[in-house]
Amino acid sequence: MMKNTLPNFTKKVVVLSFPTTDGSRTLAYPRWEKQGGRLFLIGAVPVGGSRNDWLKGGEAAVAWEMVSDYLVFHSLEDYHKRRGIYASQKRKA
Questions:
Q1: Residue 9, Cα to own-chain centre: how many angstroms?
Q2: What does pTM read for this prediction?
């Protein structure tokens, strides 16, 4: 049976993917908010959460119906640690 509840992302970092693009959006400590009848996940863009960090520290909102899948990191430290692993592996390739 499917749950009809929203995920609890309190104190977490979430990387959201979209079906129409190869891009993603990273949100730190996101919260749910309804705007104009649509559900949005809103949070801060962390360091490393955008190309060349041009969005670092900004607030971003993603319409939930646009999300195809997501990754959850249990803390900002966990996100940075795993992102560092990815970056070091990418440099080796």
A1: 10
A2: 0.84
